[in-house]
Amino acid sequence: xxxxxxxxxxxxxxxxxxxxxxxxxxxxxxxxxxxxxxxxxxxxxxxxxxxxxxxxxxxxxxxxxxxxxxxxxxxxxxxxxxxxxxxxxxxxxxxxxxxxxxxxxxxxxxxxxxxxxxxxxxxxxxxxxxxxxxxxxxxxxxxxxxxxxxxxxxxxxxxxxxxxxxxxxxxxxxxxxxxxxxxxxxxxxxxxxxxxxxxxxxxxxxxxxxxxxxxxxxxxxxxxxxxxxxxxxxxxxxxxxxxxxxxxxxxxxxxxxxxxxxxxxxxxxxxxxxxxxxxxxxxxxxxxxxxxxxxxxxxxxxxxxxxxxxxxxxxxxxxxxxxxxxxxxxxxxxxxxxxxxxxxxxxxxxxxxxxxxxxxxxxxxxxxxxxxxxxxxxxxxxxxxxxxxxxxxxxxxxxxxxxxxxx
Length: 407
Fold this sequence. Notes:
Its main location: mitochondrion. This protein is an alpha/beta fold and 407 residues long. The protein has helices spanning 15-26, 38-60, 64-76, 84-87, 102-115, 131-135, 169-181, 197-214, 219-229, 236-243, 245-258, 269-273, 283-295, 311-327, 333-344, 350-357, 359-372, 383-390, and strands at residues 7-11, 30-34, 78-81, 93-96, 121-124, 144-149, 158-163, 185-190.
């Protein structure tokens, strides 16, 4: 049985650290938020107070007494400090949300490891670094894991709970229970680059940038294609801007350094230079096709003759990547789907979407692309997908794919 987490220390008072501290305080936990800069932690405390008031107004409406109690209770449970070592003395859980630098994180956890009680669980909120590499700095790998929240923390429902091989079952259950007590939907993931969401999201958005880079389609048309063709709430180019091109570049550069042979992690020159250049096309042909498409009541997008055009060129590698995550045991199909629905706002998760598209269709596309473009890793057919199709599991249309479906 997992031990209940009551006292939480959050290291870092930036957007993520402050968001984690706020939600923890709102949900009844005793929280200490730490930052080495006293001015920064004071500003964060004020932001949290203002945010809690907005939450109360939305949550309680005209119930003034209820709102006041919620605000005062939440704020009373939040404390601050500039001394990380002293702040972990009574912590059940320490969540680190500082700069994405492996050496800095390791130095911090090595110091905290000597000061924290033996029962204290350590967790990093890193979105791109190896949890195992960070945990190496401590003597408590059985009580170490990843707790990857999404920004803004008070709004986003997803929490990726990452376990390394040494993470004990009790530690994992405690982290999951705490996440659920925070009002989050938790998904389990092994320690792999980007966990679930970013492991699928970053290569997907990078491939969209490569489409743009090659001049295969415009930014507007890529986004329109994925919103109207795949039902995504936001196109990949728009999403890249929202996430931050510098953030995407930082993540992909780190992955490429650690895994130089993985083609999906290859950096993009366009992302490096932040330059858009679209090739010319024949005006007469374009006008004719545009007129015909509009006459059919369709939204017309322009694309060169590239494998899968726009939608399938982004769609199929994304689905194949999700199946590889499942194949490698990184996460369950349910957690992969939940991660993409709650973390990215997708209507369907990639595993259930694969069933909907048809597993045999994915096999046919993958095999055709591998034949025409040998050596392209993202087109390769996952053995798990081939096995399912060989067993007659085609997805929804056959009644069973990765999931089973009733008539």
